[in-house]
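Hi Prof. W.,

I finally got the HTH luxR-type domain-containing protein prediction working! I wasn't sure whether to trim anything, so I left the full sequence exactly as given:
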Amino acid sequence: MKFNDINNNHYLTNKYFLGFLLLFLGCTFKHYSQDKKVKDPLYNKALSLKFSNQDSAIYYFKKGYNLRIAQKDTVGAIQQLMGLSDLYSHKLNYEKSYDGYWKALLLAEKSNDSISKSKIYIGLGWLYSFYKRDKKAIEYFNKSSAIRKGLHQLKKIHRSYLSQNYFAFVCHYRTNNNFSKARLYLDSLKQVKDSYLKSSKSFYYESEFGYLASLDGNHKTALKKLYRSKKYFENSNPSYLVVIHTLIAKVFLRMNDDKNAEKHFRKSLKISETYNSHLNYKLDVYNQLYQLSLKTNRYKKAIDYLLKAKDLDHKIFGINSLENAPLFEIKDQYRIEKDKQTQLFNQQKIKELEHEDKIWFLQSILLSITIISLILFGYFYFQKIREKHKNEKNLLKEKQKLELKKQKEIIEIKNKELTESALRIIEKDEFIDSINRKLKNESGKIDVNIIKRIIRNIQGNSKSNWSEFEARFTSINQSFYEELKTKFPNLRQSDLKLCALAKLNFSSKDMSKLLGISVESVHTSRSRLRKKLGLNRNDNLEEFINNL
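And this is what came out:
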């Protein structure tokens, strides 16, 4: 009873999980190396020593990592860290495995390497699952799955990468005895597998399918698939036989065939010691051999297996374990570092935004001042120019008014002079007419012919009088005739003469003397002129002409 009580406590809780952790990590990294066909000599050297000389393998992984960092080859450095973390997990040094994954994840985050992140998330998910932080484990499995589905849609990765994620879910749920979900993800794994492995089999899938089949009592099917898988791994990956023999042994246990079960447990233990791999499977195997020995009353062997199991359990899970104790509290160094970086980034971003806001505020003020200054300058400048133009315009108007006034005064003076000259001509003609009348009444000694000839020379004729008047009138009123002809093109020469005399306010009598026609003719001509100008009887001819 004492042995049974000890055994039923902590050992059985973790015995199934340990095997499947390294089962997944082993096949995953084998898959990586096959897919990528790595040409890194240090990486390949480390892989070749992984099972035969693990210390040397660790040396080459570290050397390769340092070299890739020096060469600024982030992808290569991440690959070296992942290989190193996988090796530490085989050695049961989960703390260093954990640290290696986080270190790789930091590099992947900085380089935005989504493919590497998806791989690292799976490894971290297994570590969380191993320490029963199932919610966190599922979270990281889902993160990896989401990244890979997105990359596959973009045709950046092969569909086979998705099978690794489904395989992780299968193993996780199976180790937690959630067989319904394990089968669900196994079906998804099959669908993905069949899409790229139509003519060949995946013996990782076959072994899982066989193991789950034994739960339903299909032991023959289970053994058939597991033995086929064993044959395959004997040539391709002998270290994985640790897992296969363990699964076969458990199937025999379900068949109550203790002899064959013990046989395969011993084979699993031997292969694990030979290849120095899947060491955590020893814990489960020791517990199973302890149970079988106890069942057959081989108490000495039972105690031996129990002590070995207890020692190994203490090494892996013991509170005082020098290698793995820190992981019991899962010091999430990545998250702490990430939070620090995020906080620092946010603080810097806030400072940058505040600085940008200040600059923007100052720029806005300067821009506003500049715009307002330009508007005020433009307004006052426009007002000044407008005032200047207004003053110049007023000054010009004043000058024009003065010029017009001056011109009018000059014209008026000249017109007065012209009128006076015309009146003198008229007076001269009247004087000559009076002399002619007196001479007609005189007789005697005066030679009338001589006197008449003298008078004709003095008198001239009406035509010459008008020509002299018109010449002087035109020189004073230069545009008068042009405006009349423009506005009234049907005016004749005689009409123009009347207009000129009317402008000077000559009477009909004076017009007749100056033109050499009768007063009646002048009235008749004025009447015709009024009609041509379109004047009514009430319109004043002189005012009309002076207003042109």
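Confidence is low (pLDDT under 50) at residues 1-37. Does that look reasonable to you?

Thanks,
D.
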